[in-house]
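To: structure desk
From: M.T.
Subject: fold request, one chain
Message: Could you run this one when you get a chance? Sequence is below, nothing fancy, just the single chain.
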Amino acid sequence: SLYYENSKTACLYDYLYFYATDGVHNTKLYWTTINIKEAIFTPLGTMAITVPKKESGIITTYSLNYTVNSPSVAGVSFRYQVVTGPQYAKIMLLTVPATNFTQLDVDSNKLSYHHNGNGTLKDSFQFKVTVLPQGVISGVQDFLINVQPVDDEPPIMTVLRKPLYAIEGSVVEFTRHSLCAYVYFYSRDVRD
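Reply: Done. Structure tokens follow.
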């Protein structure tokens, strides 16, 4: 995969220069323009919380908060939509499972993560943010949950490796098929 990461500020465009090759012959130098739009809103929160296993934690303004970057945009609110829920928990708005919530819900400490006691030491959910009334929608964002173990045996890790083949001077991507690790957790609650 090829990725572009913008690190410039106050820049409306950038360029990517490249050659195409069949492995023997190169083409002439090509370029493409990357148009950059000003970010209307930016995350301020840590985008993470820590929760003890089998317990719940409140998602606060400290961990989930956005701000508007433009002084010309005022009177906005943020609406969140959960795209992919956590694997080992539920996101709750007071006592109801939540797939949609607002920044006001977060600011009022009404949003929480309820761990089910299963899984690993990490969990996450993905969401999109909509700025109202403009209707501008963010890309998918990640919110991470660190789960603190409670009376668990230490994990056992198994690493699987397959040979990776590369041509001299080339770049090859490692994939989950060429290098991966599995971590097995044993819970006292399950074994007892």
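Reply (cont.): The chain has two helices and 16 strands. Let me know if you need anything else for the meeting.
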